[in-house]
Fold this protein.
Amino acid sequence: DGGITQSPKYLFRKEGQNVTLSCEQNLNHDAMYWYRQDPGQGLRLIYYSQIVNDFQKGDIAEGYSVSREKKESFPLTVTSAQKNPTTFYLCASSIRQGPYGYTFGSGTRLTVV
Amino acid sequence: AQTVTQSQPEMSVQEAETVTLSCTYDTSESDYYLFWYKQPPSRQMILVIRQEAYKQQNATENRFSVNFQKAAKSFSLKISDSQLGDAAMYFCAYRSANFYSGGGADGLTFGKGTHLIIQP
């Protein structure tokens, strides 16, 4: 079945460490996105990528980095510069053009310990 | 930049009744797409319904329908015959149609959500 997979489901990070969240899709979608979801804030866009080897900052990119070396994969690195990393992260993918919604992964819960 | 506002943090409805969730948005664009997503306790985001701004006809999907008022920038979701499985967070979202013609940025812009409670 086609879909989008995020791993791990739960992740713990020590203060000062970088950590990478995985996102893989087999839907042949060109566009991929990372969101964070905080209580009462809805979903806010961190980074997105329309094509391989290209990505754009979203509304809250500070403290995060991404790469897009393959169409299927869009990993997100949460760096030690991210002041409030403890939250829920959602990855999504979409067809580039047209009135299409996004397909979402099941999310990763990151906790700083 | 576009903004999406959901003014009802929480709504409650009796099972089998009808409920309407409100959403307004602010944009200077004429071509865009609007969506309603459902997020149950599992936190999996599920697309409920979508509307293309150039279409005057309101979208419907089984028990779910929208009231799209382009001039008023309003996009409400009506759930008929509410069921216990409808209990979830509901998010309204906006996507520009202009990104690929060189305008603006991509990415869905979400409202803060409405928590829908179904009373048995």
About this structure: Chain B touches chain A through 25 residues (CB under 8 Å).
